[in-house]
């Protein structure tokens, strides 16, 4: 939408993790060091925890991008409260093994043969488990049992677990004592501080081709830090909205007042969403807005309606722009044909 307007090569604040935008803050640098140290050991479990949106997946993708695909085989499991046997099926599926209709004993044989044959070919097998806080202890025990397989006194399978902070509480379970003994490296990702937040925003802008257009005035990054608390995904979401706001205002300067207006609009949208609740029939109904009998709340209500109308107008402009761009692309494709 605003790519051509500001001369970006790509969107700087996309929500999908992309290792090309990896920013090495202090906390991410230490987490990366723990990952590298753990992988050098070639066995056991590496645990990385952090709040939602703290950059765990981007961190891991950055590391994986540096690995030689000739040396490593990687598989990924996204946990959704898997039972013990389901965990084994998920591991088999992660490495594209034909696991359908197999009982547990056959599953274990299938996975063991894959691990041992891959190791015999000189491959290191790395299993990545995301949303690890959802894994029940019995399923974690199945992962531990897989780590018992050996080939020439070497463990063929190593596992990296990414989870939210509550995963640390899962691991202190008395039933997981043996599992904890296999953890060779662990780290908790913290949020970015004020200075890192500004550096993070500038870094992503630069990767996307930023040439100081739009220009960010003093105090803007501090405001974004206040709103997002230094959580990278929140920074991406909010900074993207600020850029869109600037584009719709035909502005090449982003100042503190603009950031505050975007924050107010976001809060207004959240209130509207909260005021709409699903009824038992599945039809969406709006909660009635109470108006005092003396009419004292009417001015505030009018103000809210005015802001909503402006928001709709902004979205209409954005939609018109997208429609125009799509039409231009379709015409270009037709001409090429």
Q: Describe it for me?
A:
With 337 residues, the protein is α/β, with parallel strands linked by helices. The protein folds into 2 domains: 1-13 and 192-273, Helicase, Ruva Protein, domain 3 (Orthogonal Bundle), CATH 1.10.8; 26-189, Rossmann fold, CATH 3.40.50. Helices cover 53% and strands 13% of the residues. The chain has 13 helices and 9 strands. The strands form 3 sheets. It has a 5-stranded parallel sheet with strand order 2-3-4-1-5. Helix 4 runs parallel beside helix 5 and helix 9 crosses helix 10. The radius of gyration is 25 Å and the shape is elongated.
Compose a concise summary of this entry.
With 337 residues, this protein is of the alpha/beta class.
Throw out a few tags for this protein.
elongated; 5-stranded parallel beta sheet; Helicase, Ruva Protein, domain 3; 9 strands; 2 domains; 13% strand; 337 residues; two-stranded parallel sheet; 53% helix; 13 helices; alpha/beta; Rossmann fold
Under CATH, the homologous superfamily of the largest domain reads P-loop containing nucleotide triphosphate hydrolases
Strand content: 5-15%
Total helix count? 13
Instruction: Determine the structural class based on helices, strands and strand pairing.
Output: alpha/beta
- Mean pLDDT, to the nearest integer, reads 83
Largest sheet features: 5 strands, parallel
Q: Can you tell me the CATH class of the largest domain?
A: Alpha Beta
The total tally of domains equals 2
Annotation, overall tally of beta strands: 9
Radius of gyration: 25 Å
Helix content: 40-55%
Q: Name the overall outline.
A: elongated
Instruction: Spell out the helices and strands N to C.
Output: HHEHEHHEHEHHEHEHHEHEEH
The CATH topology name of the largest domain reads: Rossmann fold
């Amino acid at each position: 939408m605003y790519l051509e307007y500001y001369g970006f090569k790509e969107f700087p604040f996309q929500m999908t993790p992309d290792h090309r935008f990896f920013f090495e803050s202090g906390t991410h640098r230490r987490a990366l060091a723990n990952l590298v140290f753990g992988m050098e050991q070639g066995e056991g479990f590496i645990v990385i925890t952090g709040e939602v949106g703290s950059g765990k997946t981007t961190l891991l993708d950055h590391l994986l991008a540096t690995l030689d695909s000739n040396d490593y085989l990687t598989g990924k499991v996204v946990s959704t409260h898997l039972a013990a046997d389901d965990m084994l099926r998920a591991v088999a599926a992660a490495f594209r093994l034909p696991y359908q209709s197999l009982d547990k004993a056959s599953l274990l044989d299938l996975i063991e043969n894959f691990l041992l044959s891959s190791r015999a070919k000189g491959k290191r097998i790395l299993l990545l488990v995301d949303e690890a806080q959802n894994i029940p202890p019995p399923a974690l025990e199945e992962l531990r049992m897989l780590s018992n397989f050996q080939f020439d006194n070497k463990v063929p399978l190593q596992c990296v677990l990414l989870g939210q902070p509550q995963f640390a509480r899962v691991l202190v379970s008395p039933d997981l004592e043996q599992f904890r003994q296999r953890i060779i490296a662990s780290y908790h990702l913290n949020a970015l501080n004020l200075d890192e937040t500004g550096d993070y925003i500038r870094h992503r802008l630069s990767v996307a081709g930023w040439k100081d257009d739009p220009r960010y005035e003093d105090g803007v990054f501090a405001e974004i830090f206040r709103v997002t608390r230094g959580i990278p995904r929140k920074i991406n979401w909010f900074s993207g909205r600020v850029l869109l706001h600037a584009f719709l205002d035909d502005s090449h300067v982003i100042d503190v007042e603009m950031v505050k207006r975007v924050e107010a609009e976001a809060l207004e949208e959240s209130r509207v969403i909260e005021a709409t609740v699903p009824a038992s029939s599945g039809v969406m109904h709006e909660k009635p807005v109470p108006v005092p009998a003396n009419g004292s709340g009417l001015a505030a209500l009018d103000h809210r309606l005015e802001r909503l109308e402006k928001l709709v107008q902004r979205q209409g402009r954005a939609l018109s722009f997208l429609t125009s761009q799509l039409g231009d692309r379709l015409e270009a494709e037709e001409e090429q044909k």
